[in-house]
# Entry
Amino acid sequence: MSNRFFHWKRWWAIVIKEFLQLKRDRITFAMMIGIPIMQLMLFGYAINTDPKHLPTAIISYDQSEFTRSFISGMENSNYFDIVKFSQDQQQAYEELRQGKILFILTIPADFTRKLLRHEHPTLLFEADATDPIAVGTALSSIDPIQSMVIRKDMNGPLAISNSTSIDIRVHKLYNPEAITQYNIIPGLMGTILTLTLTMMTALAITRESEKGTMENLLATPAQPIEIITGKIIPYVFIGLIQSSIILTAAHLLFSVPFEGKLLHAYSVILLFIFVNLTIGITISSLAQNMLQAMQLSIFYFLPSLLLSGFMFPFLGMPKWAQYVGEFLPLTHFNRLIRGIVLKGNGFLELWPNIWPLMLIGVLTLTIAVKFYKRTLD
Amino acid sequence: MKLQTDLAIDVKNLQKYFGNKHVVKDLSLQVKKGEIVGFLGPNGSGKTTAIRMMCGLLTPDGGEGKCLGYDIATQSDEIKRKVGYMTQKFSYWEDLSIRENLDFVGRIYELSNRKHLVEEALENLGLTSRSSQLAKTLSGGWKQRLALAACMLRKPRLLLLDEPTAGVDPSARRDFWEELHALAAKGVSVLISTHYMDEAERCHSLAYIAYGNLLAKGTAEEIITHQSIKTFNVSGNDLMPLSNRLKDYEGVEQTVIFGQSLHVSGKDTNLIQQALQKECTEKFQYESIATSLEDVFIYIMKHSTDNFGESL
Ligand SMILES: Nc1ncnc2c1ncn2[C@@H]1O[C@H](COP(=O)(O)OP(=O)(O)O)[C@@H](O)[C@H]1O
Ligand SMILES: [Mg+2]
# Structure
C-alpha cells in the first residue's frame, strides 16, 4: 500500500518524460532562456547605462563667453544634446510637454552681468522627470560643469572664488519623486519568473489533453500528485537558470550591489519558483484547453505586473490596490529579493514575506491536486 | 459481488450519459479467462465509451462490474495496474522516441526488469535499429504496433484493445492475431473492438452494439443462426440496377453488392426466390448460400432504431 499514493519510481518516470519533451521543444527552451536576456537588455538599457544625449532646449536671453562656455560644457558632458536654441519660451514648453525634449535651460538676460559682479546669477533647469532615471544622472552632471566653467573662464583678474556663483534651480516636472534605479533589475527577476513559469506549466496538462496523450497517462497507475509534481520539476531548473542569468547580469553588466547572502537569494527564488509552478499547474487543471490556459495565465500575470510594486511604487498605490497586491506572490517576492540584494536582509527581516509565499504555494498545490481530473468524464 | 475467477470481465447493466445523450444502455458483458471477445458495432455506437468504463477512465452512471475481480467503480487504481488498455487514437508521446516511450511505460508500471523487457519488445517489433526514432515519424500502422507493444510490455492478464489494427497492413494484422491467440492460449483474456469481419471471425465470441444497445451476443455461428435470415448470391455484371429493382419486392429485406456478386437476404426464402425468378435474366446466376457474419451485422444494424436521435 505504500506505493499507492506516491511512488518515486512512477514520479521519476514522469520527470524523465518531461525533461525529454522539454529538450525536444527547442523553441520553448530557447524562449525560456531568451526572454530573460531580452528583458534584461530592454529594461537594463533604460536603467543603468546612464542615458546620454538627451534633447535639450536653451532659451537664452544673454550671450557671452560664459554662457557659450557653459553650454559647450553641457555638450561635452554628452548628457545633453542641444537641439534648440531660441527665445521662444512658449514653443519650448510645448515640446517639453510632448516629450520631444527633456530639458529646458533658461539663461536670464542679466546672467553675465551678475556673474561678473559676483551677484549669484540664476540658471533655471526644467526637466521632464516622467522617467526620473533618465534625467537624474544628467542633472547631477550640472554641478561639475559649472564649477569647471567658472574656474576656466574666470582666471586672472576676473577670477572669483570657487565657493560662489551660479544659483542653479532645478524644477522637476511631471514626476517629482524618483524611484531608485536598482529596484528594477531585482524586480525584473520576479516578473520574468512569473510570466514564463506560469505560462509554461499552465500548458503542461492541457497539452496532454489536446494531444490525446492524457487518456494514456490516466490509464497508467500514476497518481495526480506524482504527475503534477513530476511535471513541474524541469521548470524548477529553467527558473533557476533564468534567475542566475539575471543575478549575474545585475552584478556584472549593471553593477547592482549585492548586499545580502546568495543562500538567502536562492532559497527565496526556489520558493517563488515553486509557487509559480503550482499556480501554473492549477491553471492547467482548471482550463479546458490550451487557449484557456494561456488566457488564464495572462489574467494572472497582468495584476502581478501592475500591482506588485514592480511597475509602480507599492506604497504609492491606492489602498485597495495594495490589498490586492498583498495576495500576489510577486509582491512578496519583490520585497524579498530587493531586501536581500539591496539591503542585505537576513532571515528575520525576510520571514514576514516568506510565510505568505509558503501558504499560497501549499494552497494552490492542494487545489491543483483536487481539481486534477482523474477520469475522462 | 462474489469473485468469479473464471471471468476476466463481468459487467452488468452499465449506463453512460453524455449530457442527456444515452451513449451506453444497459450493457452486460462477460469475458472468460483466455477468451477473445470481439466488440463490434458502427462508429459512434459506444464501444470506446464502454471500454473506458471498464478500465476506470469513465465513471459509469449506472450498473456495476468487475475487471479481473476488481470493482470498476471503486478499484480503478488496481485495474489500471493490471489491465492493458490500448486507446483507439494513438496516445503515446510523439516527441519521445520509440525506446523512450517504452521506457516510460516500464517505469510508470514499476517493472523490475524494464531494460530487458524493452529490448525484447523492440526486437519483436523489429524496431531495434530504429529505436531512437521519434514516435511522430512512424507511419500509422507502425504507431499502432508500437502502442500494442507498449500495452503488452507488462504482460497484462486482460487486454482491452480499441481498434488496435485500424490502418495496419494485412500481414501485420495476421501476425498480430496469431500473437493474440498465443496469449489467449496462455490464459490472457482479450476484449477487442474492430470493424474487420475477418477479425470478427477469429474471435471466440462476439458482442454487437449499435446506438448504445447490445444487439447480439455469442459466437459467430450463434449470432448467424439466431437471426435466421436466408441469403442468396447473385453473380453477374452490372448488378446495381438489379439490386435496386429487387429492393422493391416484399420479402427482400437487404441487398448488398460485393464486387461481382450480390447478396440478397430476408427471413422468407420463398418470397426471395419469387423475386429472383422474376428479375433474373440469363445474364445472372443465383444460388442459396450460407449467410455471412457481415450480412447479419448489416441486417441487425438496419433493424435497430437510432435511439440517439430520440433523446436529442
Ligand atoms: N467525452 C464525450 N463527450 C460527449 N460525447 C461523447 C464523448 N465521448 C463520446 N461521445 C459520444 O458518444 C457516442 C459513442 O462514442 P464512442 O464510444 O466513441 O463510439 P465508438 O467507439 O463505438 O465509435 C458518440 O455519439 C460520441 O459522439
Ligand atoms: Mg471508438
The longest strand of chain B covers residues 7-18. DSSP finds twelve helices and 14 strands in chain B.
